[in-house]
Amino acid sequence: MTAILKKATADILTRPVISLLILITVGSSAMLLTLALATLMNLSAPYERVFSDLDGAHVWLYLERDLVGQHDIDRIESLPEVVNSTGLRYYVNTRADLRGNQVPVGLRVLPEETPDVNRILLREGHQPTHGHLEALASTDLDDLYKLSVGETLGVVDAAGDLVDVPVVGLAYNPTWDTYRSDQPPYVYVDEPTLSELYPDRSTWGWAVGLRLADPQSIDAFVDRVETVLHDEVVQSHTDWRDVKRAAVFGARLNAVFLGAFGLFAIIATILVVGSSVGSIVLSQFRQIGILKALGFTAGQILSLYLVEYTGLSLVGSLIGMAGGIVVAPLPLRSVAVSLNTTFRPPLNASLILLVLTIVPGIVLAATVGAAYRGARANIVKSIAVGAEAPREQATFGYKVASHLGLPAVLGLGLNDLAAKPFRSLMTGFNLTLGVIGIVFGLTLNQTLETYRTRPELLGLVHDGMVTRRMISDGKTQHLLNQAPTVQAYYREALIEVETPQEQSFKVRAVEGDLTAFPFQIEKGRFFEPNTYEAVAGRGLLDWLDLDVGDELVIEFEDRPGRRVTWEIVGQYPEPTDQGKLMMVSLSTASRWTSSAEPDTYFLRLSDECPVSQLTAYLKQNSGDDLNLTLAEQAIPDDVVYLQIAIFALGAILIGIALVNVFNTSLLAMQEKTRDIGIFKTVGMTPAQVMTMVNTSAACLGLVAAVVGVPAGYALTKGILASLSETYGFGRVHVDLSPLRVALLVPLAVLASIAGSILPGRRAARLSIVSVLRQG
Amino acid sequence: MTPLVRTESLQKIYKTGSVPCEALKGVSIDIAAGEYVTVMGHSGSGKSTLLHLLGGLDQPSSGSVFVNDRPLHRMNETALARFRRSNIGFVFQFFNLIDNLTVQGNVELPALLAGTWGRSRNNKVRGRSRELLDRLGIGDQATKHPWELSGGQQQRVAIARALINQPALLLVDEPTGNLDSTSSQTVLNILSECHGRGQTLLMVTHDPRAAARGERVLFIHDGLIVSQMSGGDAAAAAQRLASLK
Is residue A53 part of a domain? Predict the structure, then answer.
């Protein structure tokens, strides 16, 4: 054992290049694995994590102000089901002016001290300074209206005046339900500010958030509260499970992409380490042969390499893992933001254990495999030719180049690839993985840009939307007919319906200048007005197991028992509620239900007049009754963070692939030292040596691009198609610019060459005499 | 007439570790065009170092080397590589063939490195390599790889490679060191034949029989040329070599 330890130590110290190669390979792989595992960790149960970290309320009760007093709050909080409470929280639902748009908001009092229950997660800026007229807006306002820190909300006060309140921060609330419109997005202010805006406290709403001993018994608890207090006490409530469902669904897109990426990175790690270490050991076949000639047994050979590589892999893994932990926050904070959750630092026992087990484990497996092969090989042959005897196929590249009349150095570079086919394959595969990652990011980015510029693909066919409150439909239509900038409009009533099998969903009953709107019909056609034809979202069709051409029987909510049959003539991209909606003619629906009273008007606007004219016109003619909202086409922030995270991970993947190219080139140069000496002897210049080395790398880059680009595109398309099915969305228009594809090819080649430049320079500077003296 | 090869006070010092090693201590020799010169010496005498410097494979620590009136001691690595291609051929003890090229590929290599691209040019080179291989009696081995040949055959391939560009100078380092006696004879006969065609040769050897093939034998000891004699007498060469110890 002493001999083995001495030899192992001597090997490590006297062959610094090999040792460094192993450390770089293992270290970079450990870093990538750390990032991949940290990504998967952050993807795991994001909503549950943030809910737990913020001690989210399992239920929020919105109470009838006239029916409760403080003692009632105390009674609720003292119920045995209640573990903890936010205490009484005040709120006022109102409107705010944001860049000329009237948006509904819920002013909520932010407690001075950090609460025990339902804390909020500050994403940007800071909390309002107590006593100052400032607001902390929920991130939902950013998602919906692109509200930024530093902007001003014109909050409507009790007198109906607009009061400018600067937004000093954005925060995430784990219990605001994205899909239900019972409460508007929150704006947090301190109590003095709310008093200033709404001096009459009797107009303030009362709410209390509670953590329950049994988080699943929300309905039973609400019933209990009403039993204990009063039947009508609870005006409405928010169930944390509904919020979770919406949050999980909303984050699914990001989770799928990032999860795929994480798995990708893990596979790349295994391949890089396995192929590199295996190749390195195989390159020492001659040494193994000599050791055996000296008297080392097969077992001792194995032990020698295991000792050597275990030591190096542990050191490399530690260094790489430390690097990964340091670098992780950069992409992973973006991941956390995109998932609306807290960032989970990778410094934890499970991750450390996994990295220190997986990477050294792969190294050991590769080492044992290669060393076992060496230990069993014929001594004379090992010393003479090493692990891989020269192969006839290895001259293929040279022959092709010669036949085509290409310079000899290019042929020699091609020969190198054929000479070590397994190693070339593994290196090429790793490069391909990197290219796939970049294509993934580029395709996603471009697809999102396409949807941004063509929102009708998302089902957003309008430029603006007007909602009415008290003013009549007829008056609204009259105003819109006269309104400046309105080129066309259609009106909509959203009606609850149910199938005979008690499946509930909503129907968009529409009427107006429908032909002026670019509805995208993916299958079939649009319905004819005044008929019993309908178009349905993909989600609805999948859910009800229907297709275009089928019939659907429904009952309107207010007319149970009266069944109406609709013929589904087309499928369209429905952006809300997982695509589980249907669109029908308003006039037809009106014959069957009294709920077909349109309250939403979708507009096509002219570019010739500014929108502010329309806003002013509506305000002048309807006061605050008609509310205009422009269809903001910007990509939501969480998708931007997703893009950042994916590109960062893609860049890391490419970086790892380049390290592999470097390793492969350096290893190849180590093995080809004798050949390079001979080439230089017969007249190969240093520049020609570099060309030869770079040719091998360039070929690998070219193959990686040729294989990786279509593979990455197909992978992205497959993932997006599968996601669109989950979202009930319909066909996804995946885009990748031919120009970008064309550019990727030379970029991949150049990047691969970059990985081989240093080994090439080293080879070019090789001393001929040193090589010849070694024999 | 200007000698083809001329050195003046050629010195080479190797710095290995803390103790410098003076491999050549000031060697001045001339080799005329068409001359066959052999250099004899014991291991470590500096004969291989001399060959390396004459071939531009290494740079002298001081002194000068002229081949075909070109100052090799002043050339950079790229210029030396280009010069070697066209003017100097090498034959080594251990053949130094490229395993993953065929015999023909090995022979053509210096010519392909030397010229520009083009299929017609490649065809010309191919023709010349075929000619050489046939002349050396291994034309039928053209498509084989070095590891498939015997030592003697490999050395003949190395000679063909060295001659492909019709170099002015052929440098040969212990050509028979790795061969049996029959193969050694064959190789030495080939080299003599090359000389017969006007090739200038410098062979480094410690084999008196090989050394005797030369027209002139130089004896090197401790980095200096200590004596010389006419070629042809292997026994005398052996005796002179033994006296160097």
Answer: no
pLDDT for A493 equals 93
Report pLDDT for A634. Answer: 43
**pLDDT interval class at A385 (50, 70, 90):** low
Q: What is the pLDDT of residues A704-726, one digit of tens each?
A: 899 999 998 888 888 777 766 66
Which chain B residue has the Cα nearest residue A419? B100
Contacts of B118 in chain A (CB under 8 A): 405
Question: Is residue A433 one of the residues assigned to a domain?
Answer: yes
Evaluate whether residue A412 is within a structural domain.
yes
The DSSP bridge pattern shows strands A563-572 and A551-556 to be antiparallel
CA distance A667 to A439: 29
Whether residues A772 and A677 share a domain: the answer is yes
Q: In terms of pLDDT, which residue wins out, A87 or A346? A: A87
Question: A39 and A88 share a domain?
Answer: no
Q: What pLDDT does A638 receive?
A: 58
Residues A594, A663, single domain; the answer is: no
Smallest Cα distance from A770 to chain B, Å: 10
The distance of A17 to chain B (nearest Cα, Å) reads 20
Domains and CATH numbers, chain B: 5-242 (3.40.50.300)
Last residue of a domain, one of A630, A646, A677: A630
A-proximal residues of B, 168-227, CB under 8 Å: none
Domain boundary among A196, A214, A232: A214
Identify all chain B residues contacting A684, using CB atoms and an 8 Å cutoff: 81, 113
The confidence band for A250, taking pLDDT boundaries of 50, 70 and 90, is low
The shortest C-alpha distance from B93 to chain A (Å) reads 9
One-letter identity of residue B40: M
Say whether both A377 and A435 belong to one domain: no
B23-54 burial code (b ≥16 CB/10 A, e <16): bbbebebebeeebbbbbbbeeebbbbbbbbbb
Mean pLDDT computed over A144-156:
89
Measured at the CA of A542, the angle between CA A540 and CA A547, to 5 degrees, comes to: 90
State whether A405 and B121 contact (CB < 8 Å): yes
Identify the residue with better confidence: A177 or A683: A683
Q: Is there a contact between B113 and A408 if contact means CB atoms under 8 Å apart?
A: yes
User: What's chain A's average pLDDT?
Assistant: 83
- Pair (A255, A356) in one structural domain: yes
B122 to chain A, any CB pair closer than 8 A? The answer is yes
pLDDT value at position A382? 65
Is the Cβ–Cβ distance between B223 and B245 less than 8 Å?
A: no
As for how many domains chain A has, the answer is 4
Q: Does the beta-carbon distance from A686 to B78 stay under 8 Å?
A: yes
Pick among B12, B97, B98, B145 to test the A interface (most A CBs inside 10 A): B98
Q: Is there a contact between A700 and A433 (Cβ–Cβ < 8 Å)?
A: no
* Same domain (yes/no): A465, A607: yes
A533 plus A608 within the same structural domain = yes
10 Å Cβ neighbour count for A558?
13
DSSP state of A105: E
Tell me the pLDDT tens digit for each residue of A268-290. Answer: 777 777 777 777 776 677 777 77
Helix spans in A404-468 (H): 408-419, 421-453
User: Which residues touch A510 (CB under 8 Å, ≥6 apart)?
Assistant: A490, A491, A492, A583, A584, A585, A586
The residue segments making up the domain with residue A277 are 1-44+250-389
* Predicted pLDDT of residue A633: 46
Asked if B96 lies within 8 A of A406 by C-beta distance, the reply is no
CB contact under 8 A, B147 and A404: no
State whether A90 and A120 are in the same domain: yes
Is A274 domain-assigned? yes
> Which among B117, B119, B145 is the nearest to A407, CB-wise?
B117
Q: B233: distance to nearest CA of chain A, Å?
A: 30
